[in-house]
């Protein structure tokens, strides 16, 4: 085990204050008002009963009146702490301190505290492995560790962000109770227990080690690594399909924090691979992920009412903060911006402050929000915290350099006394000014993100700051099309990083602030016309009608039968109406190509897509992965001349077989093809086929197939493609 010193990533070197009356500041105030409407005595009521005390008030409804009760108390503590830290609100601090004092008074002598009795934990600790466990049930209780984890996390936030010293004493005693209990369990029994959703308990112990330096917390953190999930990720293998998405994310955040306190590179590998996989292979246009709370297959982008669980994005943003701290990668910040604007900001009703659980991607559906007192979903809990987190990633200092990541109007202060103001009306204007207003005591460099959606990427280095430093950043925004990665023909429309939604009105709209979001999961959606316009040139059929609100209009002749024109506006500004963030399209050229191959394809590989390649036992050297938006294809590209990739594919021995290599039409060079050790020739590419798919058809000797097949009707064998540098292989298929 490394003696790597703890990295205190939870201790922020910057403090950021949102500029009043601006978009995020208004949303944050709405979120604060929503939290302050809660009665701390009602939040505490389940815990009083669990501690065999008389509650001071009635329990809230919904999930707080079920076996998961107490989870909202933890979110409440975190939200109050965050709002106090970010805004200095006195009522938030008062409610926080009162709540912590009540917890201190009723915490059990052995350290246990929770919104549920300790019964399920007691049974597990003492059973010698003979306990009941399912994905969402432990000792016949609904996710008990998940429920109490929220309180652990809330108390840590109360200490770190709320300035409450009692909170650390309370949570340390809770942690010691857990360590005493799990000390009675073998490692195999621990792994069995971890099969049930248990929230971020790993991160709790890692955080406590970072705060206290006590070795017992680091040792306990290591015991909470769920090997079923962690081990494939450490090997960079994606086995996420079918797993409950939000169960895994807190585990990965815990691994990230464990890397920071131990230096174990395996944990970093797992966290970074998970992040890359979820962001680039398992996310919707708004940055959210999952359908029915679960991961589908790689590149699944099925549109549904119960897609994009909001909790997931809350956790992915937290994971992004850790990963950015390691690599300062602008692509991580690009994702953060996309998810913050298009999912998190969009998930709160601007009028009531109500929160979404799922965010529907099904065209013609609507957002469903929580009631204040009776919904109490998991996403209601994280929804309490989301607005106080708006400030966290705007600007961050690392090792004497301030990174400006987001263009949100605010004032950034460093511990060393530097103060900078970000002046902008982004995304309603295409620039931002960053100005020093107070000079610090030590040198500070400035780097400002160049967003990927501008056509460039990275961070521009402005060097050392001076007292009079002022920089202006241009943020040119254009309309663009983002095609669904499942090749369904569905697509979304963006302006810069902002997802535009079609306002479809309120026809047959039910009440959309409800106690139970499931009642609407089978309600009908409105149909949306297919788009027949050129997706490579959206500015030809989408026109801006109001720059002040980023409102756009599609031409009527852009849709099928020229019957619909859509009003588009930012998704974050789309509430209490039916909407579409995805549109179906008709592509005559692609449809004709698909029809051609439909009946003659024997086997098909999608280069650059992990599952497809693994299913075909691929081998490769000196290649890399990527994606070309204009042709909507992933690729595997040769990094140098002679790079190769091999696939084990199926051949039909009863017919003639042809290998079809699909490359990018603009690439030039050569590709050579080998079938089972037989050279099938070299093919020269001139690069004059433009922005298109270019199919190379290579006959396979019929005698060779039949000789290998014998009496069998089909065989499987390897085909190897060797390519010149920068050739991109987009598709690989066998036809007859």
Please characterize this protein's 3D structure.
The longest helix has 18 residues. Strands 14, 15, 16, 18, 19, 20 and 21 form a 7-stranded antiparallel β-sheet that branches. Strands 22, 24, 25, 27, 30 and 32 form a 6-stranded antiparallel β-sheet that branches. A 5-stranded antiparallel β-sheet has the order 1-8-9-10-13, with no helix packed on it. It is of the alpha+beta class and 736 residues long. Helix 9 runs antiparallel to helix 10 and helix 9 runs parallel beside helix 12.
What does this entry show, briefly?
The protein is α+β, with helices and mostly antiparallel strands.
Radius of gyration: 27 Å
Overall residue-averaged pLDDT value: 95
The total of helices stands at 19
* Shape type: globular
Tell me the structural class.
alpha+beta
- End-to-end Cα distance, whole Å, is 56 Å
Beta strand %: 15-25%
Largest sheet: 7 strands, antiparallel
How much helical structure, as a percent, in the residues?
A: 25-40%
How many beta strands in the DSSP annotation?
Answer: 32
Which residues form runs of ≥5 with pLDDT under 50? 1-11
């Amino acid at each position: 085990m490394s003696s790597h010193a703890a990295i205190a990533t939870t201790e922020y070197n910057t403090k950021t204050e949102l500029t009043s009356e601006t978009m995020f500041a208004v949303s944050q105030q709405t979120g604060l008002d929503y939290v302050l409407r809660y009665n701390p005595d009602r939040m505490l009521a389940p815990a009083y009963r669990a501690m065999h005390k008389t509650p001071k008030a009635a329990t809230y409804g919904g999930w707080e009146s079920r076996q998961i009760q107490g989870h909202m108390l933890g979110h409440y503590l975190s939200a109050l702490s965050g709002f106090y830290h970010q805004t200095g609100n006195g009522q938030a601090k008062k409610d926080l301190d009162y709540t912590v004092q009540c917890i201190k008074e009723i915490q059990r002598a052995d350290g246990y505290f929770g919104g549920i009795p300790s019964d399920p934990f007691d049974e597990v600790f003492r059973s010698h492995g003979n306990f009941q466990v399912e994905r969402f049930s432990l000792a016949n209780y609904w996710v008990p560790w998940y429920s109490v984890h929220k309180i652990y996390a809330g108390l840590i936030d109360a200490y770190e962000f709320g300035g409450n010293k009692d909170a650390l004493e309370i949570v340390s005693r809770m942690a010691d109770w857990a360590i005493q209990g799990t000390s009675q369990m073998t490692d195999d029994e621990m792994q069995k227990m971890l099969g049930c959703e248990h929230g971020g308990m790993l991160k709790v112990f890692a955080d406590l080690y970072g705060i206290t330096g006590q070795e017992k917390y680091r040792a306990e953190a290591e015991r909470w690594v769920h090997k079923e999930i962690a081990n494939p990720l450490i090997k960079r293998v994606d086995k996420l399909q079918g797993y409950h998405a939000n169960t895994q994310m807190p585990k990965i955040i815990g691994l990230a924090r464990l890397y920071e306190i131990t230096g174990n590179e395996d944990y970093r590998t797992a966290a970074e691979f998970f992040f890359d996989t979820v962001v680039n292979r398992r996310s919707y246009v708004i940055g959210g992920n999952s359908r029915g709370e679960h991961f589908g297959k790689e590149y699944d982008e099925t549109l549904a009412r119960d897609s994009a669980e909001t909790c997931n994005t809350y956790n992915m943003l937290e994971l992004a903060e850790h990963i950015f701290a390691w690599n300062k990668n602008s692509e991580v910040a690009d994702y953060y911006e996309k998810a913050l604007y298009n999912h998190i900001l969009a998930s709160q009703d601007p009028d009531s402050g109500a929160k979404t659980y799922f965010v529907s991607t099904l065209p013609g559906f609507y957002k469903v929000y929580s009631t204040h007192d009776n919904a109490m979903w998991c996403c209601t809990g994280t929804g309490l915290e989301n607005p106080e987190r708006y400030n966290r990633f705007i600007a961050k200092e690392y090792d004497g350099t301030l990174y400006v990541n987001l263009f949100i109007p605010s004032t950034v202060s460093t511990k060393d006394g530097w103060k900078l103001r970000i002046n902008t009306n982004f995304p309603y204007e295409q620039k931002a000014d960053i100005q020093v207003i107070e000079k610090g005591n030590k040198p500070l460099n400035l780097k400002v993100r160049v967003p990927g959606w501008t056509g460039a990427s990275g961070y521009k280095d402005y060097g050392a700051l001076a007292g009079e430093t002022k920089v202006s950043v241009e943020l040119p925004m254009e309309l663009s099309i983002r095609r669904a990665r499942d090749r369904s023909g569905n697509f979304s429309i963006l302006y810069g990083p902002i997802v535009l939604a079609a306002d479809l009105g309120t026809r047959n709209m039910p009440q959309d602030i409800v106690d139970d979001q499931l009642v609407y999961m089978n309600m009908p959606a409105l149909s949306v016309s297919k788009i027949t316009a050129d997706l490579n040139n959206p500015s030809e059929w989408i026109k801006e009608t109001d720059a002040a609100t980023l409102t756009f209009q599609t031409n009527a002749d852009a849709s099928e039968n020229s019957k619909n024109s859509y009003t588009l506006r930012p998704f974050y500004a789309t509430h209490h109406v039916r909407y579409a963030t995805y549109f179906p399209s008709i592509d005559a050229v692609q449809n004709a190509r698909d029809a051609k191959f439909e009946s003659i394809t024997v086997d098909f590989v999608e280069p650059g897509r992990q599952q497809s390649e693994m299913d075909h036992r691929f081998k490769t050297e000196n290649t890399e992965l990527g994606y070309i938006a204009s042709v909507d294809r992933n690729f595997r590209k040769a990094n140098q001349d002679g790079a190769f990739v091999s696939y084990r594919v199926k051949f039909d021995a009863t017919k003639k077989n042809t290998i079809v290599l699909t490359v990018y039409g603009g690439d030039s060079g050569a590709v050579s093809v080998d079938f089972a050790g037989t050279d099938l020739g070299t093919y020269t590419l001139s690069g004059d086929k433009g922005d298109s798919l270019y199919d190379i058809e290579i006959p396979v000797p019929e005698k060779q197939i039949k000789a290998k097949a014998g009496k069998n009707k089909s065989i499987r064998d390897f085909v190897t493609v060797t390519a010149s540098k920068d050739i991109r292989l987009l598709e690989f298929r066998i036809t007859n």
